[in-house]
Design a protein that fits this description.
Strand content: under 5%
Keywords: Membrane, Transmembrane, Transmembrane helix
Largest sheet: none
Helix content: 55-70%
Biased composition (Basic and acidic residues): 86-97
Number of strands: 0
Transmembrane segments: 23-44, 50-70
Number of helices: 2
Organism: Sulfurimonas marina
Region (Disordered): 86-109
Order of helices and strands: HH
Shape: elongated
Distance between the termini: 55 Å
Structural class: mainly alpha
Length: 109
């Protein structure tokens, strides 16, 4: 990663704000996807004159919303895996120390 050696002064100041907006945009994108699907269904219904074609657009909108949730989940899971890997690499030296190990063998007093 390119940001590993940066000091706190070099980190982007707006990074937390951008990440928060990204998380908020998921809810908005779900609503927008469903509304766009309803709009597409309404247009198909107007062009064909068949009432049930509205549901085609609704299903397209719902599918797009589910796809948005899946993409967001995949992105978050990938970030979680990277964080877990990074944490385990930092903790590994603590577990490899032999000087704290005690001998639980037989004691001769």
């Amino acid at each position: 990663m390119a940001n590993e050696n940066k000091t706190p002064e070099e980190e982007p100041r707006f990074k937390p704000l951008i990440e928060a907006a990204d998380h908020l945009s998921l809810g908005i994108s779900i609503v927008v996807a469903v509304l766009m699907g309803v709009g597409i269904g309404w247009l198909i219904q107007r062009w064909t004159g068949v009432a049930w074609t509205m549901f085609i657009g609704v299903f397209i909108g719902i599918a797009a919303a589910i796809l948005n949730v899946y993409k967001a989940y995949s992105k978050q899971y990938k970030e979680y895996e990277e964080l877990a890997k990074e944490r385990s690499e930092r903790m590994k030296p603590h577990f490899d120390k032999d000087e704290d190990d005690e001998d639980y063998g037989e004691k001769n007093y």
